[in-house]
Amino acid sequence: MRALLDVPGPIDHVHQSVVLPVPADTTLAGITDRVARLLRKHDLLRARLVRDVVGQWVLEVPGKDAARPIVSRVDTETGLDAQAEAARLAPADGVMLRAVWLDRGPKTEGALLLVAHHLVVDAVSWRVIAEDLTGDGAPTTSFRRWARLLAARAEAPDVVADLDHWTALLRTPNRCSATAPSARATPSTPRACSPGPCPPPTCSPPTPAA
User: Fold this and answer.
1) How many domains are there within the chain?
2) What gap in Å lies between CA 52 and CA 177, rounded to an integer?
3) Helix, strand or coil for residue 102?
4) Which of 61, 67, 77 is nearest to 145 (CA)?
5) The dihedral of CA 55, 208, 3, 35: what is its sign?
6) Which residues face 50 on adjacent strands?
7) pLDDT tens, 42-66?
8) pLDDT of residue 8
């Protein structure tokens, strides 16, 4: 998130999107209700991107009552336009998620396009979001708690012990062959991701739901 916020220039429309199947008997009111519940469950989907008193970017999360789902209906495939919806995202106003329902009629399965700002979703988030939309989602850790746990983990002795290694790695031209001391494990053990352009090995970073 910090890397994205440090990008020079506007980032209002940096997004990810997904298209999910929708049962034939779905209604606009039903989809809107599900999206509203999604916003109430996942705080970041309601967040506003603002600057604090010292000018730093922060995400301000209003209460659950502030959830305002934005769902539109189209009846043609061309209406599922992720780029057009991304252009309507407005992080400063708390518009982090937009949805478009493709209604193919009462007897035909439809589709739901979800477009979310990249500040509030990643590739793993979509699985959680899809499960929550169908009502099958399990309880998840809030982003606030996840961020605090991550910060605490960064200060753990075994992590701090690797600091010199990772600092040196950032100055190493060929970073693909380097492995953290704590990650020199068997092939069955996930290894830490190497920063930089080279393809990382199997990675398992902690990721919040949304």
Assistant:
1) 1
2) 41
3) strand
4) 61
5) negative
6) 58
7) 989 999 998 888 888 888 888 888 8
8) 80
With a CB cutoff of 8 Å and minimum separation 6, the contacts of 96 are 44, 45, 46, 47, 89, 116, 117, 119, 120
Q: Assign residue 100 the CATH number of its domain.
A: 3.30.559.10
Structural domain boundaries, residue 69:
2-146
Is residue 209, in this structure, part of any structural domain at all? no
26 Cβ contact partners less than 8 Å away, ≥ 6 residues apart: 101, 103, 110
Mean pLDDT computed over 24-36: 94
Cα–Cα distances in Å, from 187 out to 134, 182, 183, 191, 201? Answer: 37, 14, 10, 9, 10
On whether residue 138 sits in a domain, the answer given is: yes
To 10 degrees, what angle do helices 28-41 and 125-133 make?
Answer: 130
Q: Supply the pLDDT for residue 20.
A: 95
Residue 196 lies in a domain: no
Unique residue bearing structure tokens 């606009």: 28
| Nearest Cα residue to 96 out of 74, 124, 129 | 129
DSSP 8-state assignment for residue 152: H
Note if the pTM is more than 0.90.
Answer: no
Mean pLDDT of all residues in 151-169: 89
Which pLDDT band, with edges at 50, 70 and 90, does 91 fall under? very high
Decide if 50 is inside a domain. yes
In this predicted structure, the answer to whether residue 104 has a pLDDT above a threshold of 60 is yes
Residues with Cβ < 8 Å from 163, sequence gap 6 or more?
none
